[in-house]
């Protein structure tokens, strides 16, 4: 306000207070004056509740708090009449309350000092604040509505940065790199309390040393009084005085509570939806990498309480410890990097900053409806405009006959973003305007006060609040009746340029799968087996499968934990593309006892939409390897001890090797045979003048590839040579000593010998392989000649 000298006769000041929001509000405003007493009147000449007290910043000024009630987009005029001396009798003060300052002794702050022995309460209808007179710091806050007390302590800390580029990382305008955690910026605290009828102010002064005369930091906490049922009762307003700082110092406000937030906070995304910020440890610069932008709001909570902060400017926030929230307030940095010095980017700021924060405590359900409105109420506080004395002098108690402007009021879940005059006679035909601009046609811009541009925003996300998140319908004719009669409404684009009916959005060429409808389903992850027992040296295989949505790229992480390591440790991570989706396996070739524990797979879908799911886990038990263990049979895990007959041991070994041997033979001849052969071919080696035939050996390394989906041909092949060394070959070796009659008998035996059929069928009728087993000793063939042929064995792989 303009200064009014004490020599003025009948000093007074007229002000206009404007509410920029489309809501009805009741709050207090602060006006700095140079008189010890003042009385405030409204437009009707009625006294307005006010409170005057000596200012904290100067001994020659006073703070005048005035209660104002304004409608949406409404302004009111107030008259302030000053007095040169404070009132002595309460009756002479009218509606203004003169508040007195109560000073407390400065206290040392030492971790070894006993605290909480002398607590001083500050009461309002919404909160009870307890101040510790042993430290002059805040001790706790009680929510009177929820009957929940939370221990809260607030102080200032400083991060110290490096200024030499040769000594390590530095901090500048674009980088925050600290040498360690924030250190306390004070050793003693002074306190003053100003109890009042409108607001009670708590003044705390933080000194670097106990004997310092000038404080380094100041915190002013204002608790509103006597406004039960009003929004302003639920807020605690705090303003800070920070600076000038030492070089390479970054100051933070640290709020420590008993909330179990697991170092997790929520911050707004550029003033809109709240994002979860979980503390993540890093190898380098973990402090700075856990700071997040706070444009409008930040909060931390547990199951029963939530502590929210709202700002009128952008800050950086972090939760470096359990139940703790840090807000970056000011920075002063200097370094010797040539590029920074050349462009003056060292941020050597010696200024004093005075940011403002609002603090709200309550249950998560109760504060959800307040968070969006409180943030906007702080950023769009009433505007105070001093005006000259009107030409027609009006007595203070003389009523005014002018009709007040009808307010513009929206529901509490809607926010009026824009209400303005376009500024010129803008044609609704945007194409015609573009042609005029291209032709160089110029015209004088004339405001059209009969047209306004209106933007309305819904504040709450879907599901954020059970009531306020619902869609709402409003009558624009009633809302804008204070501006005049509404004749027509045009819905336009967000920029206001295009009529929505003429708007043509850009169309992008996209590739949409026919089964994309399944991408919206939830991700389901299964893990097998749940229990797994093994002996040292055994191979172990675990499988993780997922379904429920169409994916294009996923990341699978396997983690392990046991009783001695309760924290999950990541062991394997792999990225899978579209052609390898649906399943991931963890294979341990040879387990040891230290591998025992619980294994979990986590599937993270990255494209097309982010989702994640975790398997139920696999419990692995590893037993020590014993010398007397010979055979593990079946799924039951029974153990056979040494001492059986040699015939039984040979039979057991044969049975165990037979499936593997058959599979190797099938794979080998699958690749060896022609893919176009429609029927079986028998390979018969004829004797040719005593020439020896070369024996065919199977490759020790085989690879099985899936058949093409469109290939429906059936491949068949006969295998003659897959015998172990103990089985005499029918066609290998020299045959000079064999007679022609023996050859005919052998051919006859081969034709009549039973065949083992292994058929691998793909789900899409892919290629099939028929394998005949002629690996039978000659003696066995003759004995089994009259026996019925063995049944075919069919194996289908989906």
UniProtKB/TrEMBL annotation:
Pfam families recorded: Glyco_hydro_38C (PF07748), Ig_3 (PF13927)
Acidic residues bias spans: 779-789
Amino acid composition bias (Basic and acidic residues), ranges on this chain: 767-778
PANTHER family: ALPHA-MANNOSIDASE, EPIDIDYMIS-SPECIFIC ALPHA-MANNOSIDASE
Molecular-function annotations in GO: alpha-mannosidase activity; carbohydrate binding
SUPFAM superfamilies, alphabetized: Galactose mutarotase-like, Immunoglobulin
Annotated Ig-like domain residues: 523-603
Ranges of biased composition (kind: Polar residues): 726-739
Record-level GO cellular component terms: lysosome
Residue ranges, annotated region (Disordered): 682-702, 722-798
GO terms, biological process: mannose metabolic process
Protein name: Ig-like domain-containing protein
């Amino acid at each position: 306000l303009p200064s009014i000298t004490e020599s003025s006769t009948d000093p007074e000041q007229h002000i206009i207070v404007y509410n920029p929001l489309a809501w009805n509000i009741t709050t207090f405003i602060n006006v700095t004056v140079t008189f010890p007493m003042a009385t405030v009147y409204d437009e009707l000449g009625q006294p307005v509740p006010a409170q005057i007290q000596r200012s904290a910043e100067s001994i020659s000024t006073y703070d005048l708090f005035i209660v104002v009630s304004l409608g949406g987009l409404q302004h009111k005029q107030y008259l302030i009449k000053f007095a040169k001396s404070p009132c002595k009798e309460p009756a002479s003060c009218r509606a203004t309350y003169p508040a007195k300052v109560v000073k407390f002794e400065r206290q040392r702050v030492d971790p070894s000092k006993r605290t909480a022995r002398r607590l001083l309460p500050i009461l309002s209808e919404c909160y009870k604040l307890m101040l510790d007179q042993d430290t002059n710091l805040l001790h706790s806050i009680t929510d009177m509505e929820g009957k929940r007390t939370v221990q809260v302590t607030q102080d200032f800390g400083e991060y110290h940065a490096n200024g030499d580029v040769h000594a390590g990382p530095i901090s500048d305008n674009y980088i925050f790199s600290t040498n360690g955690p924030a250190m306390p910026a004070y050793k003693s605290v002074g306190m003053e309390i100003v109890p009042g009828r409108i607001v009670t102010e708590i003044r705390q002064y933080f000194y670097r040393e106990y004997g310092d005369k000038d404080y380094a930091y100041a915190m002013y906490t204002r608790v509103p009084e006597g406004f039960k049922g009003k929004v302003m009762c639920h807020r605690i307003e705090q303003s800070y005085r920070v600076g000038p700082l030492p070089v390479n110092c970054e100051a933070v406000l640290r709020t420590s509570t008993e909330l179990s937030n697991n170092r997790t906070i929520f911050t707004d995304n550029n003033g809109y939806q709240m994002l979860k910020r979980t503390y993540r440890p890093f190898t380098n610069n973990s402090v700075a990498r856990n700071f997040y932008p706070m444009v409008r709001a930040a909060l931390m909570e547990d199951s029963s309480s939530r502590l929210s902060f709202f700002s009128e400017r952008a800050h950086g926030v972090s939760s470096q410890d359990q139940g703790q929230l840090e807000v970056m307030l000011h920075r002063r940095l200097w370094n010797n990097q040539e590029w920074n010095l050349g462009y003056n980017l060292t941020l050597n700021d010696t200024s004093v900053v005075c940011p403002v924060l609002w603090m709200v405590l309550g249950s998560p359900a109760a504060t959800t409806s307040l968070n969006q409105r409180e943030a906007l109420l702080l950023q769009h506080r009433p505007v105070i405009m001093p005006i000259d004395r009107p030409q027609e002098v009006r007595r203070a108690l003389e009523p005014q006959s002018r009709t007040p402007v009808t307010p513009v009021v929206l529901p509490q879940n809607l926010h009026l973003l824009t209400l303005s005059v376009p500024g010129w006679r803008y044609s609704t035909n945007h194409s015609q305007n573009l042609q005029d601009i291209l032709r160089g046609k110029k015209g004088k811009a004339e405001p059209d006060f009969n047209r306004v541009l209106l933007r309305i925003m819904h504040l709450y996300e879907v599901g954020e609040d059970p009531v306020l998140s619902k869609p709402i319908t409003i009558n624009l004719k009633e809302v804008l009746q204070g501006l005049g009669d509404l004749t027509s409404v045009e819905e336009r684009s967000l920029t206001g340029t295009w009529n929505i009916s003429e708007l043509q959005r850009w169309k992008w060429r996209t590739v949409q799968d026919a089964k994309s409808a399944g991408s919206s389903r939830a991700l389901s992850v299964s893990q097998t087996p749940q229990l797994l027992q093994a002996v040292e040296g055994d191979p172990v295989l675990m499988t993780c499968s997922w379904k429920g949505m169409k994916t294009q790229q996923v990341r699978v992480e396997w983690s392990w934990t046991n009783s001695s390591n309760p924290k999950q440790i990541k062991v394997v991570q792999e990225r899978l593309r579209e052609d390898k989706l649906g399943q991931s396996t963890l294979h341990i070739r040879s387990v040891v006892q230290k591998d025992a524990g619980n294994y979990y797979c986590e599937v993270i879908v990255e494209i097309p939409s982010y989702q994640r799911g975790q398997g139920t886990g696999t419990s692995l038990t590893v037993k020590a390897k014993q010398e007397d263990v010979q055979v593990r049979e079946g799924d039951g895990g029974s153990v056979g001890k040494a001492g059986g007959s040699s015939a039984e041991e040979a039979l057991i070994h044969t049975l165990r090797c037979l499936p593997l041997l058959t599979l190797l033979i099938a794979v080998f001849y699958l690749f060896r045979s022609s893919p176009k052969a429609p029927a079986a071919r028998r390979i018969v080696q004829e004797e040719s003048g005593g020439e020896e035939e070369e024996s065919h050996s199977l490759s020790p390394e085989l690879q099985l590839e899936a058949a093409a989906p469109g290939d429906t041909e059936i491949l068949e092949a006969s295998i003659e040579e897959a015998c172990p060394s103990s089985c005499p070959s029918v066609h290998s070796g020299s045959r000079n000593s064999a007679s022609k009659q023996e050859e005919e008998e052998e051919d006859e035996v081969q034709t009549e010998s039973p065949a083992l059929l292994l058929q691998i069928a793909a789900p899409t009728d892919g290629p099939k392989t028929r394998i005949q087993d002629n690996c039978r000793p000659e003696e066995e063939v003759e004995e089994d000649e009259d026996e019925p042929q063995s049944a075919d064995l069919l194996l289908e792989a989906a």
